Amino acid sequence: MNLRNTDDRWGPVSQLLHWTVVLLIATIAIIGLVMIDLHNGPSKIRVYALHKSLGLTLLALVAVRLAWRLYAGTPRPVAGTPRWQERVASLTHGALYVLMFAMPLTGWLFNSSSGYPLQWFGLFNLPAIAARNEGLSELAKMLHENGFWLLLALVVAHAAAAFYHHLFQNDATLVRMLPRRNRADARTQEIHDVV
């Protein structure tokens, strides 16, 4: 089994990292939206700690994902894809990576400049990346909140484009990021790609 990406498909490692990051972002987003309305108390502190730990996990996974992408390469664009769509997809992917790094980092900056300790699932402490500073804290909070909405918009656009290609263009853009179920599926996909 080839773990790396091929010219026509994302490999299993890229697929695993992609879908893990998708689920992690969805989980962090839901927790982030819910936690702001919680009443002060120990449960709110636990939820905030979980949000922060998952955010740090996202930061590490995105770094691994980017390193793997650089090592394993990327598939060629699906045959027949207009050049402007290739450019838009490339810009969108770049913006998604920037935001997937920026969200945890702005959260870490907000946490540090607010003077809060940062732990990863209670196992170890991480250093502050800035001294306590109210102005910086407000800036980091604003960047974190606005970055979330921008990330959400790009994720929706990215998913919509994949479904558009699948449903209306009838090409392999979406399915090549999905695991193959068996050899017959792989052969059917190869035939579909040729046609």
From TrEMBL:
Q: Does the keyword Aminoacyl-tRNA synthetase apply?
A: no
Pfam families in the cross-refs: Ni_hydr_CYTB
Family listed = Belongs to the cytochrome b561 family.
State the species of origin: Montanilutibacter psychrotolerans
The Cytochrome b561 bacterial/Ni-hydrogenase domain sits at 9-179
InterPro entries found in the cross-reference section: Cyt_b561_bac/Ni-Hgenase, Cytochrome_b561_oxidase, Di-haem_cyt_TM
What's any GO biological process attached to this entry?
respiratory electron transport chain
Instruction: Give one GO molecular function term.
Output: heme binding
Q: Name one GO cellular component term.
A: plasma membrane
Transmembrane residues, as ranges? 16-36, 48-68, 88-110, 148-168
Q: Coiled coil located at which positions? A: none
Q: Give the UniProt keywords, A-Z.
A: Cell membrane, Electron transport, Heme, Iron, Membrane, Metal-binding, Transmembrane, Transmembrane helix, Transport
According to its record, how does it sit in the membrane?
Multi-pass membrane protein
Tree of life domain: Bacteria
Q: Where in the cell is it found?
A: Cell membrane
**What cofactor requirement does the entry state?**
heme b
Protein's name in the database: Cytochrome b
